[in-house]
Amino acid sequence: MKVLVDTSVWSFALRRHEPSPIADRLAELIVESLVVMIGPVRQELLSGISNPTSFEVLRDKLQAFEDHAITAGDYETAAAYYNACRKQGIQGSHVDFLICAVSSNNNLLIFTTDQDFTRYAEFLPIRLAQ
Q1: Contact indicator for 40, 68 with CB cutoff of 8 Å
Q2: What pTM was computed for the model?
Q3: Domains present along the chain, CATH in parentheses
Q4: pLDDT digits 0-9 by tens, 15-65
C-alpha cells in the first residue's frame, strides 16, 4: 500500500546521519516505490533553508518524487476534517488536515512522527503506517 510521508519523517531522516528505525523505514518505502509526496510537504521541507546550495541539493533530491495531485475534493475534505476535529477540541494545521484528506480520499497510509495524527485518527478515517 502506498504511503503519504509527513514532513516530520522527512525532516527526521534528512537530519540524521546515524541509523534509526524511522530513516530505515523511509528508505524501505523509497526502495519499494511506495512513497507518496504532496506539494505542501515539499514546500514545508524546503522552507527555511537559507543556504541556496543546500536548498538546491534538497530540491533536486526531492524531484525524484512526483507530486500526487490534490483535488478540490481533497481541500473540501480537509476543511471538513478541520471542523470535525475542532468540534472535539483538537487543533491542527491546515497541512495536517490536507494530509489526512489526501490519505483518506486515496486509500493511503500516513507515515509520521507527529503525535497529533494519533489524535486525529480517533475522529477521522485515516490509517497510520507502522
Answers
A1: no
A2: 0.95
A3: 1-130 (3.40.50.1010)
A4: 877 889 999 999 999 999 999 999 999 999 999 899 999 999 999 999 999
